[in-house]
Input
Amino acid sequence: GYRPNFAFSANGFLTSFTLESGNTSDSKAFVACLEENKKMTGVAAFMISVDDGYSAAANLDYAIEQGAELVSISGSKGKKLLGDDLYESENYQLARDIRSVSEAGISKLKNYHSLERFTVCGLKRVRQETLISAIGFNLEKLCHCLCQIELKEAA
Output
């Protein structure tokens, strides 16, 4: 099997993805995902909000070294790693709320852009299939944004 990891902007655009063969844990895939995101966007992530699966002190340290000013990790592992005061702070709560953008994007990629199961074999072809789905996802997102602008101008 293959395990994708996706990065999204605060606006909900898919900014990058990594794809590992096998069942790599999220915590082991974090650094590669962060590096790919910087490569694709040209900037270091300012705010990172991830689920409990990415929780590791080394990941937190790496993100901060790369310039992230806020690294929110949801769940009990994240709370333990960050400490109660930081975890419960307003900015970290906001970051956890924004993570829903990523969760919605992942759901849409799986359910509407054919990434629930890959239809091809081989890492190269699976990457191509993921990229095609990612492009379609972002085009749909862009169309939605443009339609919202047109609706505002028409009103």
Q: What stands out?
A: The helical segments are 26-41, 57-65, 75-82, 84-88, 90-112, 123-154. The first strand starts at residue 2 and ends at 8. The mean pLDDT is 92. The radius of gyration is 17 Å.
